# Entry
Amino acid sequence: MIKSDTTKKTRTRLSPKARKNMILDCAAKLVAGEGVSAVTMERLGSEAEISKALVYNYFPSVKLLLQTLLTREYRHLRRVQLEAAESAETLEQMVRRVTKVYLSYISDRGLIIERLSMEPSVANSGDPNKYGRDPAVNYLAEILCDNFNIDMEVARATVDISYGMPTAAGQYLIHNDINLQTIEDITVAMILGSYQAIQKRYETSLKTLLKRPRNKAI
# Structure
């Protein structure tokens, strides 16, 4: 009898969470390399070396899968930003560290987020607050409020608007051949400049006036 040299490949049994993340990892790779249109259940099954039926078991549709992937990307990004902010001891350190982790993440995975967010059915999947932006904005606004005597409403608006600067910097980084450190330095300078300008304006013209009761004529 001739013995076969082929051996059966043993499959590793993954937990449902690990299997789900593996499928999402394969989808992220396809989105980054070929675009959103490359993501199909058949292709995912092939990439993950599982059946198409098993992919459907975790994600009933491609739309839901892509929405879940975008949510995962944003949640992770907001989490590392918040951790960076909590580790800082000065305002400049906080802005620098939050900007650095954001731009580093965008440099690595920004194309995935950009391509997913350009799909209306994916990007408009729900309240953006579920990505953890609001807690991060509130945390930074409280720091401005407590340390620089800026009203919380003004501080929150300042931080929320300043969030657009790293986003714009990330877009520039994706589409231009420029040094990451240069973009980081520019962005940090712009954010700190805006905070300092708001603090100065708040001390002179934005602060709500305290008025004494007007004496009525007898």
Observations:
- The chain is about 70% helix and 0% strand.
